[in-house]
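residues and backbone:
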Amino acid sequence: MAVRLPRPHRFDVVAAVGGLLGGVLLWGIGLGVRPADDPLVLFDGRWPVLLPLLVMAGCELLRRAAPRTALLTGTAALALDTVTRGSVVTLIMFTDLVYAAVLYGTPAAARRVPWIVGLLTVAATVVPFAIWRVPEALLIGVAVGVVSFAPASTGLIVRNHRDAALAARLRAEQTALLAEMDRTQAVTAERARMARELHDIVANHLSAIAIHSTAALSLDDPDTSRQALSVIRENSVDGLAEMRRLIGILRDGSGDREPAAAPTLDGLGDLVEGARANGLDVTLHADHGTVPAPVELAAYRIVQESLTNALKHASAGPVAVTLARRDGVLDVRVTSPYGHREGPRAPGSGAGLVGMRERATLLGGTFTAGPEDTSWTVRASLPITEGDPPE
């Protein structure tokens, strides 16, 4: 199976070609690192210098795509260069390979290469001085440090800065993502809240309008029609006013910007009276005391929606509304006659039960609704938080 070599980066190609041309130029004018009579020169002449130069230029092509392979091959080429007259360009390209091995290599290579070349620099400083006992021997360690340890340290510093910048960018992206998720959740929660408010405020009026308009159309009695039209007008006016308030809150810069006062449990009497005017036989038993505003609003809306459902779906008979406070919980219970009917008096969307359950769940309470014997019973248990309710 053929091994496909990685494609070199464009900058690496430029570095390789530039290094090769520079080395050939210095070779052409006869500029080398060591004189011909140096004892280290085993391959005298000008031509042997080109082989390590060519190999080192080839390693530059792999400095980013395969830094470990490039460094190992470049080290062998540098060793070959030391037994020829040598080239400055070959040394410069080797320092770049050390730098690239730390910057672009694996994390393990980034940790090991500086330690290895650091130990080599120390050894190249101590061993020659211990053998020859002359200060000039220390220059060997300096040369090794400049060629290997300095570029490795530089690569490590640059890599640390790059990793820190990358981590900061990832944190910023995560923060932006979390902020977008929070914004989306807030918008979704606000839309759900407005949907509940719109349904609870308007559904009661529209149901009464639908029921009384049906009665006015089906009964040929002027007095009954007049009473039905009066109820229709009252509910339509109230519903229109509440719709305008909601639209004023939603619209920016127009309409009534001030929200209507939130209903309280003190208004349950008026709510029951309105249900009685719509034809329900409602009794109210309330013993709730003072409760936090969120619990008060949720209990009021649950009773309001339950009466609306009773108006649309219940059979003839009494409807009982009971509120009782016990053991830190406000219990809300609404019962209405449950039996076989041809169909609802007014169409419904099915969102009423969902909205009541959401209101109870948001407060950490429970909600149930269903038939019990001959009655349809709505139950909600709303925890009462002492002190100010959480926002």
In short: Residues 10-173 form one domain. The radius of gyration is 43 Å.
